[in-house]
Design goal:
Length: 317
């Protein structure tokens, strides 16, 4: 097995704190600088799997970086530099406590709610007579509250966000506008690669100067669902499943092995052979989404490589 990055313990100059999420570890430095390290940890059903996936952190970081650069003319973002394949450095922000989920198709969570008879999702009406994976007449925004560590994100309506004062109306209108613009651009970028951007989520923060910026990952297979465009209409007409490009294949493997993150369930053992196939699928995702050949970084000592690259970058800050 290739070496994987499961955790880090860096002590950068002027470091103030470190936050460890499910996949990313964020080091806060003086002067409002954040160093975000994408590990090779794999999260599914809000549970971190015991073994890492080779190159996964590099893949997610590099897709997110490319997508930030491809949308920065539309929406300002937090990113300053990517001095290492697994690292993004940017401006510290106060994150909004909502995730802006936008759906172009009746898939995933929306489809499950629809099948249960619901026609309102986060206060947004879904038309009658749809089947799973049908396209909505217009993309719908279905926000979720940002979960505290270990908890599941929860659906929430725009009205509840405003009435509870989670986001001001002025700021929320900006978040909605940015979400629609990003999804439109993401849809166009996906189409160039023969893909359909089905649904995704965006996270935003506010700088100390008061500017709303895009943060975290964007249009990655962990935060988005893609279908292959070729054959989409034929599969829908026949009632067949769509060919997906997301980490849904991992969730399905876990479900088939009796795990959905529920209390009392044990994470099934992932063999080295299966982990290799997951890594290969992530590389396929990268190449399909970006249209570029994936270049494997040196993984002989990932932590040492990252530390050296970040320190060299910081000499010029």
């Amino acid at each position: 097995m290739s070496n994987t990055l499961m955790e880090t313990d860096f002590h950068f100059p002027n470091q103030l704190s470190v936050y460890r999420g499910k996949v990313r570890e964020v080091y806060a430095l003086e002067n409002d600088i954040l160093v975000m390290v994408a590990t090779d940890r794999l999260s599914a059903f809000d549970v971190v799997m015991p073994k890492g996936i080779p190159y996964k952190g590099q893949i997610l970081n590099q897709i997110a970086t490319q997508m930030m650069m491809a949308t920065e003319d539309l929406v300002p973002n937090w990113l300053l530099a990517t001095p290492d394949p697994n690292v993004a450095i940017g401006k510290a922000c106060q994150p909004f406590k909502v995730e802006m989920v936008i759906r172009g198709y009746l898939s995933g969570h929306a489809a499950r709610e629809y099948k249960a008879g619901k026609r309102l999702l986060c206060g947004v009406a879904m038309p009658e007579g749809m089947k799973e994976n049908d396209k909505f007449p217009e993309p719908i925004i279905t926000p979720a509250t940002k979960a505290e560590k270990g908890d599941h994100d929860e659906d929430i309506s725009k009205e509840e966000i405003l009435s509870r004062g989670i986001v001001s109306e002025e700021d929320y209108l900006v978040l909605e506008d940015y979400t629609r613009k990003l999804f439109q651009r993401g849809t166009e970028l996906a189409a160039k690669q023969g893909l359909i951007l089905v649904d995704t989520k965006y996270e935003f923060g506010k700088t100390k100067e008061g500017q709303i910026v895009l943060i975290d990952e964007i249009h990655t297979p962990d935060s988005s669902r893609y279908f292959y465009k070729d054959g989409y209409h034929e599969r829908q007409a026949k009632g067949e499943s769509q060919k997906q490009l997301s980490k849904e294949f991992v969730r399905q493997w876990l479900i088939s092995n009796g795990f959905q993150g529920l209390e009392g369930q044990t994470v099934p053992e992932m063999s080295d052979e299966y982990i290799t196939t997951v890594s290969e699928r992530y590389i396929e995702l990268y190449e399909s989404i970006t249209g570029e050949t994936f270049k494997r970084a040196d993984v002989s000592n990932i932590a040492e490589r990252i530390e050296g690259n970040v320190l060299r970058f910081m000499e010029h800050l």
